[in-house]
Amino acid sequence: MERATFAAGCFWGVEDAFRRTPGVVEAVSGYAGGHIAHPSYEQVCGGNTGHAESVEVTFDPSKTTYEALVRRFFEIHDPTQLNRQGPDVGAQYRSVIFYHSPEQQEIAERVKKELAPQYLPKTIATSIEPAKEFWRAEEYHQRYAEKHPGRVVCHI
User: Fold this and answer.
1) Cα(153)–Cα(10) distance, rounded to whole angstroms?
2) Is 19 within 8 Å of 2 (Cβ atoms)?
3) Is 45 designated active site?
4) pTM of whole model > 0.85?
5) Sign of CA dihedral 82, 7, 77, 79
6) Which of 10, 57, 76, 107 is catalytic?
7) Residue 134 pairs with which residues in a beta bridge?
8) Each residue's pLDDT tens digit, 131-154
9) How far apart are CA 66 and CA 10, in angstroms?
10) Distance CA 84, CA 104 (A)
11) DSSP label at 44?
12) First-to-last C-alpha distance (Å) of the chain
């Protein structure tokens, strides 16, 4: 199994989208890219921790590729929005690909560059950063879409 970590706005919808992606074994909502340990949802929403609402994806590389997941990431949100996604505003909703290896970094950068012309005249705001510590979100955030069927989940 391999890991991939993405931030694309509110993690409820992002988690649900990846959970339904073939080859994904697990998708967990949490916080990445910040500067404090064990942040709470309230702290992250306050905007002072540096974290983005993120999803850590565990996938089976015999059933899907990291590149396919990066492409899915770009499909499920608007990567041209800076520090927001739909009605959610703030750096905690920024678009980020957190890479776990030089190979993942190369793939993310290549796909971003390849897709850039599709978004003209806008530019892709997605940053590509090394993965650091991923902090699992509180349990009530996990599988939110499944726990609240029929409810509109974020921007997706």
Assistant:
1) 9
2) no
3) no
4) yes
5) positive
6) 10
7) 32
8) 999 999 988 888 877 787 776 556
9) 21
10) 24
11) H
12) 26
